[in-house]
Amino acid sequence: MKKIAPSILSADFSRLGEDVKMIDEAGAEYVHIDVMDGMFVPNISFGLPVIKAIRNVTERVFDVHLMIEDPGRYIDEFADAGADIITVHYEATVHLHRVVQQIKNRGLKAGVSLNPSTPVMLLKDIIKDLDLVLIMSVNPGFGGQSFIEGAKDKVIELVELRDKYNKELLIEIDGGVKEANIGEISCWGVDVFVAGSEVFKADNPAEKIKRLKEIVNA
Ligand code: DX5
Ligand code: ZN
Fold first, then answer.
1. Which domain holds residue 113?
2. I need a labelling partner for 72 at 20 to 30 A (CA). Which of 38, 170, 203, 212 fits?
3. What is the pTM of this model?
């Protein structure tokens, strides 16, 4: 079963608890949590106390996407805050193998994300150690941007690596995912679909989540 991961970056932060409950009740398996440090990306979002607070309102999988420099400094803190999956950026992590082990040693799933300009092949030697690879289909930092078409070839290349080295690997896509393109993206072999503005700008966000889930599992 393919999964929808609504991104709370586009939620209403003044009533975040209710929005997270809505995600849960609509049947989304993951809550996508975008942490930004104003260094790795040109935006600051939210951090540990916010994750701890929303951990009380749902048992859904917390899919924490760290857009921060040198994420190895904070793996224990994000694990303690309630993360289930921690995804770090290839471009922000000098000792990627060590950080992946840090995440797994906490009993969590480990993901690595690639910016649009970072080649998939760079993951070849670590892919067997990963639970998830997140392909960015926008430049990270903001919700509401348009899907970069080059992501298609990257997903296709990653599917080949998955077939060869790690059949359990989850492929996630993040940025510019809409009702209009999610069906096509699903055909490429993606397992987890992040959607921020498409969900939270909808007249009925819960219905939108259900619709996206139907399309990818059709
Ligand atoms: C961007 C974030 C995304 C963002 C996606 O840096 O990683 O998760 O919330 O937003 P949309 O779906 O609006 O492109
Ligand atoms: Zn994200």
1. 3-216
2. 170
3. 0.98
